[in-house]
Amino acid sequence: MPAEPPVSERRSRSPGLSESAARSSVAAVLFDMDGTLIDSEKVWDRSLVEVLRWLGGTDLSPEARRETLGGNLRSSLAIVFREAGVVQTPELSEQAARRLVERTAELFEGGLPWRPGALTALRTVREAGFATALVTNTGRHLTDKALVGIGAEHFDVTVCGDEVPRGKPAPDPYLRAASLLGLAAEDCVAVEDSPTGIAAAEASGAAVLAVPCEVPIPPGPGRVVWPTLEGITAADLTSAHREVRERQAA
Description:
This protein is an alpha/beta fold. It has helices at residues 19-22, 41-54, 62-68, 73-84, 90-109, 118-128, 140-150, 172-180, 195-204, 234-249; strands at residues 28-31, 131-135, 157-159, 188-192, 207-210, 223-225.
């Protein structure tokens, strides 16, 4: 028997679009996870502070907290070491990474609250027939734990930060997600909450629907900013995609 495809490449449903979705300019919706679908940034904050204190520090500065939003394991650990004033040796980095992942996994297993409108948005997008992907800087181990509560069935593919050469803010995660779906990123709408994730999505060529969580998001040519995912419709996503493309063509 042929080997089963990796989790990140399995499809939970046929990739074919419904007639209504095919008529729109949007082929797929690519969702960020932390801060966009689930309110997990505060969980990461707790884990990072615990590792910081293990290193001898006290607390993350407001600036450092903002820097960690949407970041990956490597970038977040670098910030923690910097804030602690400790040299980041390979041995200490490995120990800190293990502590961070293990503690975050414990907190993830305790359950994660949805961001406003997120679950309904996922269902709406699926019912409309759009292809979907989860695109996160979080590693596969923790993402799979989060997916137990989120529901892997909402996504055709999932891409994690440890499965690409460069995590967000590089475009690699979004380019890989579009590729796995057999699409161009330009035909997708990415739903993001952080400056790091928005930079990655825009660099990939995707149109961005920005829904701020922890920090304000200013307007930009590659994005449409909404306060929440509550009440979102397939027509709204199509409109956001069209607005970005028209703005960029002007």
